[in-house]
Amino acid sequence: MDDVERLRGRLFGIAYRMTGSATDAEEIVQDAWLRWQGVDRTAVRDADAYLARVVTNLSIKQLTSARARRETYVGEWLPEPVLTGQFDALGPLEVVAERESVSFALLLMLERLTPAERAAYVLHEAFAYGYRDVAELIGTSEANARQLASRAGKKLAAEPRREQPVDRAGWRKLVELFVAAARLGEIEELEQLLAADVVSRADSGGQVTAARNVVTGRSKVARYLSGAVRRFGGGIEAYLTEANGGPALVAAGPDGVVAIAFIAVGADGVTHVEFVMNPDKLAFATAQLSQIGGLSDLTW
Question: What single-letter DSSP state applies at residue 70?
């Protein structure tokens, strides 16, 4: 087996956590494979380390370029979601730490870091590389790698943590009520399910109709969400499934996924609703669905 294929899951995982984009991660792994074809293998002592270094550096380059492009991005920018659970794109997510390393909330927080800080954090925290290995992978000293990871950790610790659902059954029940109220336009009932300071973001990239700015507050969010849900045409169904290691709401139709929503729940109700609606960012999830033969097989 080719070394890139053998390591594909790890390489994709590094690139995805670094860029927040499954599409970019696939391209980075493909680029790494092309570069690997032109390498004198006898001169490479450790193929695993070599390929991880290539992917890390390509990811840093891509992230730097992507941030420049985001200055002209239309509306809110959100990470590109990946379906997990019965899908293996990110490998097994069997323990809490593995799930948290790809959570949508963490990917949003990682945007606060510089590319070098993000690389050090991802490699050390998500993939358990020692600081000496991190230094070699990103091309710096061990002391600087340690400092980069430390700064990243402090920045992330300063970010407010979102409350997570106590149990999946409770989350499911609340979200089912949430969707039903939004579909029926029952604004008062919907407001009762939302926290007073609820926040909603939508990433459409300007390609579909969605709020381009953050919507905050129980009343405004309730009216916005009700209108947004009711705009979906016939043939679109909502499915409770798993994305990025946690519960998510997927809206899909005959042509694939049209939206993925991450709904955070706290003691006072729904605190955050993030919609990914940019068709370009849903192509990967749609391709994943084709692997299992249909929407009816989506489970959570």
Answer: G
256-266 and 246-253 as β-strands: parallel, antiparallel, unpaired? Answer: antiparallel
Residue type, 219: S
Phi and psi torsions of 237, nearest 5°: -120, 155
Amino acid at 34: L
The pair of structure tokens assigned to 247 is 């519960």
Cα 261-173-288 angle, rounded to 5 deg: 40
Edge-first strand listing for the sheet containing 256-266 = 215-216, 194-203, 269-276, 256-266, 246-253, 237-243
SS3 category, 269: strand
Tens of pLDDT along the chain (300 residues)?
588 888 898 999 999 999 999 999 999 999 999 998 888 888 888 889 999 999 999 999 999 988 878 888 899 999 999 999 878 788 777 777 788 889 999 999 999 999 999 999 999 999 999 999 999 999 999 999 999 999 999 999 988 776 665 577 888 888 889 989 988 889 999 999 999 999 999 999 999 888 899 999 999 999 999 888 777 666 788 888 889 998 899 998 888 899 999 999 988 899 999 999 999 999 999 998 887 665 554 444
Please choose, from the candidates 299, 245, 243, the residue with its C-alpha nearest in 3D space to the C-alpha of residue 275: 243
Contact 23/283 with Cβ under 8 angstroms? yes
CB 153 within 8 Å of CB 44: no
